[in-house]
Design brief:
The chain has eleven helices and 13 strands. By secondary structure, the chain is of the alpha/beta class. Helix 1 links the parallel strand 1 and strand 2. The structure holds nicotinamide-adenine-dinucleotide and thymidine-5'-diphospho-beta-D-xylose. The site of thymidine-5'-diphospho-beta-D-xylose has 16 residues, from helix 6 and strand 8.
Length: about 325
């Protein structure tokens, strides 16, 4: 089987390619990645001779048409993925998440290639802290940021191409991922690498915002489950019952790295900051039989901290530029 993975040099995509190559020797993998600031070819070093890597843009129509035409399956991870960046400059988000996804959809339509679309729970907006509700596949779309609204747009494009043109597609919307190879701009790696660099961690607002954490390997296992058993045209929510507020996660990181629980700064809040995400993954579990393997967040987090300790050469080149960019908009409140 010939598999085209877009965004395979990013966080989730690289973990997907690594586990696919390790577990599915029958799959021939081609990665298409533009190597933006978020892409890192080094994430694929250990399997470089077992995949084809194409450096290119998913909005490049002739390139995408050729690569999709040579594939049996496309799994689309490529995106501009960071909310904070989308608030500073939304244009790359429209280019990649909307135009890029449309480019892929036209190609899978023209070549009748099976397509799986990776998306996020952020398309559903947010929940109150005390609301017993969680997101399901029938929750109305209500995105808050340029990032989440372009992801919502991309999901709707997939639905339209499936219905109007018969594109053989499935969609998954997953909660917050953690694990190795995540860019240092994101919450968990930022705080770990701040501590490893002698800097104080930064908590937005009051640190009460809740995210529903899932290990990246559990996400990617769910993606393969949907590819193999999912019903065409359907959407599946992926989550592992991992709700925690940001302060709890940060205190866990501080404890695990031997720091006092108050050794961090409160900084200016993110504009429009979503309060809480929570996924009900009953459909995926009951209809397709998926279950997460990383049920103990603390041990998954500890393994992630160890990974950043042991792989400083991977993250160090991005660290200073990332912190300089945060410093332009962020100020310490207390
Ligand atoms: P990431 O930012 O780490 O990686 C994105 C990758 O896409 C990078 O390698 C980048 O170079 C590549 N890319 C960007 N623009 C491109 C373009 N125009 N053409 C080709 N390649 C391009 O992102 P991630 O965290 O790995 O997220 C992957 C996918 O999963 C995204 O679609 C995101 O919306 C979704 N998602 C992420 C999370 C999370 O917690 N990180 C949760 C749910 C869903
Ligand atoms: O320094 C920080 N301090 C802080 O308190 C950073 C970077 C973040 N935060 C907060 C904001 C969020 O409440 O931590 C939480 C997580 O922030 P991010 O890592 O930026 O993730 P989030 O905005 O929740 O979005 C993530 O999950 C859904 C991914 O980046 C998206 O790609 C995915 O769709």
């Amino acid at each position: 089987m010939k598999l085209l993975v877009t965004g395979g040099a990013g966080f989730i995509g690289s973990n997907f390619v690594l586990s696919t190559v390790a577990q599915r020797p029958e799959v021939e993998v081609t990665v298409l990645d533009a190597l933006t600031y978020a892409g890192n070819r080094a994430s694929l070093n250990s399997i470089a001779d077992r995949i084809d890597f194409v450096h290119g843009d998913i909005a490049d129509r002739p390139l995408v048409d050729r690569l999709v035409g040579e594939s049996d399956l496309v799994v689309h991870f490529a995106a501009e993925s960071h909310n904070d960046n989308s608030l500073n400059d939304p244009w790359p988000f429209v280019h990649t998440n909307v135009i890029g996804t449309t480019t892929l959809l036209q190609a899978v339509r023209d070549h009748d290639v099976r397509y799986h679309h990776i998306s996020t729970d952020e398309v559903y907006g947010d929940l109150e802290l005390d609301d017993p509700a969680r997101f399901t596949e029938s929750t109305p779309y209500n995105p808050s940021s340029p990032y989440s609204s372009t992801k919502a747009s991309s999901d709707l494009l997939v639905r339209a191409w499936a219905r109007s043109f018969g594109v053989r597609a499935t969609i998954s919307n997953c909660s917050n991922n953690y694990g190795p190879f995540q860019h240092v701009e994101k919450f968990i790696p930022r705080q770990i690498t701040n501590l490893l660099s002698g800097k104080r961690p930064k908590l937005y607002g009051a640190g009460q915002n809740v995210r529903d954490w899932i290990h990246v390997d559990d996400h990617n296992h769910a993606v393969w489950t949907i590819i193999e058993k999912g019903v065409l045209g359907e959407t599946y929510l992926i989550g592992a019952d991992g709700e925690k507020n940001n302060r709890e996660v940060l205190e866990e990181i501080l404890k695990e790295t031997g720091n006092p629980s108050d050794a961090f700064d409160f900084v200016t809040d993110r504009p429009g900051h979503d309060l809480r995400y929570a996924i009900d993954s009953t459909k995926l579990r009951t209809e397709l039989g998926w279950t997460p393997q990383y049920v103990d967040f603390r041990s998954g987090l500890k393994a992630t901290i160890d990974w950043y300790r042991e792989n400083e050469q991977w993250w160090r080149p991005q660290k200073d530029a990332t912190e300089s960019s945060y410093a332009l908009t962020e100020s310490v409140v207390s």
